[in-house]
Design a protein that fits this description.
Elements (H helix, E strand, L loop, with lengths): L12 H16 L12 E6 L5 H12 L3 E6 L11 H11 L2 E5 L3 H10 L4 E3 L7 H15 L6 E5 L5 H12 L3 E5 L10 H11 L5 E5 L2 H5 L4 E4 L12 H8 L6 H6 L5 E4 L11 H4 L6 H19 L4
Helix pairs in contact: 1-5, 1-12, 2-12, 3-4, 5-6, 5-12, 6-7
Bound molecules: phosphoric acid mono(formamide)ester and norvaline.
Amino acid sequence: MIRNLLKVSDFSKEECERVINKSIEVKKNPKKFRSSLEGETLLMLFEKPSLRTRISFETGMQQLGGHAIFYSIKDSPLGKKENISDTAKVASRFVNIIAARVYKRQDVWNLAKYADVPVINMLDDYAHPCQILGDFQTIKEKRGSLENFKLAYFGDGFNNVTYELMRMCAIYGLRMDVACPNNPEYSPEQSVIDEVLELSKNNGAKVKVVNNALEAAKDADVIYTDSWMSYGIPKEQEEERKKAFMPYQVTSSIMEAAKSDAIFMNCLPAMREYEQTAEVIDGPQSVVFDQAENRLHIQKAIMLFLRDKF
Ligand code: CP
Ligand code: NVA
């Protein structure tokens, strides 16, 4: 059966665990895997910008002995002059994996529906699974385990990365507070809350939305924030969003309210003095660059998993 990775909950906890452990192995001994995907091709379709995702996938595929194609959707007929189903079927005749970063979740779902090869979501408006698997690798490396910790998220609750953190904390039976404004435009969608409740059944996970930042920070082991201006949000909304999210900015006071050994994470790109202050992101508790590096290793492990190479 062809497997896809459209959101992190497409993998079971056991599969997430296997992929994270493989990534740790690949990171330790990259040379061992240099021919693992020899002769294989990854197609990367980009509708939105990227630095980390594009470079890490391209480098990762090359390090596995394969080849990656960067294809800007701006230059393609995707969804305009031809159906996404035709694109998926044609690309499947040429390449071994299709990855896509699109605005609308339905587009990557359709690619997966019609492709005959695995499809990886490189970020849409609903999910960012490669990011969150890499982030959990980082947490495992920093804490030594993925058991029994509290993650607190601050800022935009109506957000791909937030949704994936919620799903992953639910899968792992963890505690998570999402601190965001009391406004449906900035809070998680109901379908995500429903999915998280389902994933939390019988495993002790407690994922909840709160509106008070200090309450979320209390006892937290991981403090996480993401951009207030995700790709595609119009510039005209910036002032309004800044006003709404400022009470959720990660400051030194938030870090002090968390556990003394808490780590600070941001998937990047980050804006200093927006979602966090410079002293937090550039401070001793920040792990953002280790977090960014792990995108390379985890994506190699994801591609190996989807190509059935371990
Ligand atoms: N974190 C992340 O996905 O970064 P890019 O948008 O640069 O790919
Ligand atoms: N929420 C952000 C994540 C960037 C990696 C965005 O969608 O732009």
